[in-house]
Write a structure and sequence with these properties.
Blueprint (H helix, E strand, L loop, with lengths): L2 H23 L3 H5 L5 H17 L1 H73 L4 E12 L4 E5 L12 E4 L2 E9 L4 E5 L6 E6 L4 E7 L5 E8 L8 E4 L11 E8 L8 E8 L8 E5 L3
Helix pairs in contact: 1-4
């Protein structure tokens, strides 16, 4: 038996004894109502009380143990209610934990649906504004940027119909071209790669040239056979030269026109890419020409 239980039992015993002593020590009201009564009357009252005590032993015993019994019953009820509340609280905590887990699962599913919807929107945008040859999207799972190359790795490969020389784009503009393909992965050489070569033209103007990647994140347009004057702010897009990219894919915006030899038939200028290539999360795949 624990110390708490022993203390509780001792309390009950002492309480019962105290009540018994109080009952024995009490006197009938008639003995106290008349303070002038003689000693004989007092003795008579005591005798009457003692006879009453003997004649009604069950009533006396009942009144003597009623209080501790009630305390025990109340204590038992309180303990029972406490245990019930603890059990109920445990059940509520379990329900709350299950609901929180369900909410987390639903949030994860919602995010996946949002990403899927984003991919569908991207495919639709590319199909409408760039090329009807778009076949789907892929996530960018790696980017390699350095002095000698600028590439990205996609999470799709041959098993997803990705092939070499497949143009890669986003709704903002051209990203690059697939150069390596495995079963489940593919590598893209971006237009910022120094070895990248993309045939381009200025939108709405006659002429064509080649976009070369630079380490500063811009493109240098070289060998541009100019028939119309190129100005800062002009839009640059792909053309069918070399037959690698569909015509009309956005490439970027002219930010600087370089000084050229007046006798030269070509000009050079700097273009800021339309796509933020270093921060792309997903790309669209276009059938190669």
């Amino acid at each position: 038996m624990s110390e708490l239980a022993k203390a509780f039992v001792t309390f009950l015993i002492l309480a019962a004894l105290s009540i018994v002593l109080i009952q024995i020590g009490q006197r009938p009201d008639t003995a106290t109502s008349n303070t002038g009564t003689s000693g004989a009357n007092t003795a008579t009252s005591t005798s009457l009380f003692q006879r009453s005590l003997v004649q009604r032993p069950l009533s006396f015993l009942s009144s003597a143990v009623a209080l501790p019994h009630n305390i025990f019953v109340a204590s038992t009820a309180n303990v029972r209610n406490y245990l019930a509340s603890v059990s109920q609280r445990h059940d509520q905590e379990e329900v709350i934990a299950n609901l929180q887990e369900e909410v987390a699962t639903l949030k994860s599913e919602q995010r996946q649906l949002e990403l899927q919807l984003e991919n569908y929107r991207q495919v639709l945008g590319v199909r409408v504004f760039q090329s009807s040859g778009v076949i789907g999207t892929a996530d960018v799972i790696g980017i390699s940027s350095g002095r000698l190359q600028n590439t990205m790795t996609l999470n799709k490969g041959k098993n997803d119909s990705v092939v070499k020389n497949m143009p890669i784009t986003v709704p903002e503009g051209l990203v690059g071209i697939v150069t390596e393909v495995s079963e489940r992965r593919s590598v893209v050489r971006t237009i910022l790669d120094p070895s990248s070569r993309v045939g381009v033209t200025v939108q709405g103007k006659a002429g064509q040239g080649i976009a070369v990647g630079q380490l500063d994140g811009n493109l240098r347009i070289i060998d541009y056979f100019q028939q119309d004057t190129v100005k800062v702010g002009d839009l640059v897009e792909t053309q069918s030269r070399k037959g690698l990219f569909p015509r009309g894919l956005p490439v970027g915006t002219v930010i600087q026109v370089l000084d050229n030899d007046p006798n030269s038939l070509t000009t050079e200028f700097i273009v800021k890419p339309a796509a933020d290539i270093q921060n792309i999360l997903a790309v669209s795949l276009i059938k190669p020409l």
